[in-house]
Amino acid sequence: MPLPPVIAIDGPTASGKGTVAAAIAQKLGFHYLDSGALYRLVALASKNQCIDIGNSAQLAVLAEKLPISFENGHIFLGEENVTEAIRTEEIGLRASTLAAYVDVRLALTGLQRSFLKPPGLVADGRDMASVIFPGAILKVFLTATAQARAERRYKQLIAKGIPAKLEDLLRDLQERDARDSNRGAAPLLVADGAKVLETSDLSIDQVVAVVLDWYQSVIAQH
Ligand code: DC
What we know:
The protein is 50% helix and 15% strand. The chain is of the alpha/beta class. The chain has a single domain (6-221), classed as 3-Layer(aba) Sandwich (Rossmann fold), CATH 3.40.50.300. The strands form 2 sheets. The protein has a 5-stranded parallel β-sheet with strand order 2-6-1-7-8. A 3-stranded antiparallel β-sheet has the order 3-4-5, with no helix packed on it. Helix 2 (35-48) crosses helix 4 and helix 4 runs parallel beside helix 8. The protein binds 2'-deoxycytidine-5'-monophosphate. The site of 2'-deoxycytidine-5'-monophosphate has 14 residues, from helix 2, helix 4 and helix 8.
């Protein structure tokens, strides 16, 4: 039996890929994988257990047996609802550091692939198209300037009542871009055959519409 279709959406931090991927999954009735959340969960769990960020072997063991579950848009680590706790800048930076370790990435590979079930999957991350789902029917790379992405994140935080400074966000984001792009293991890159969409001047709805159009064209050709 052929595998269900995958739409892989990769891109740098704050490129809007999570919001876009979730909206597309909802419109198509597909499953959704937020792969960054898995790296963030390893970051949070390892921080709670005081595991040294330099200890890749121990981090990989932890990643292999993470007690995680996703329920109605909420993310649980064991019994604890950590949906908000994994979204801090501190956890994002820690996630970006441990995501550079090959053993950690391998430990999370099977878990990511287990999200692929009928009728299909929308997966977002850095290496969805290049490593985890190379057979994806549609590969999208969303990008936006660092300034536009920092401004988006700034507005999100302020809207949630979380104090933020634009220049700090811009610096953190550039630091993460550099680390995610320059690492040896599965770096952030435009995969072969991926369609690139520059979103600095587009709304979420516009991006969703373009990707859905691309998907319909691909389906029509099959
Ligand atoms: O998408 P995000 O910001 O939630 O991801 C957090 C970190 O996890 C990101 O800085 C790099 C890493 N990551 C990764 O290496 N590969 C993925 N597929 C997803 C995220």
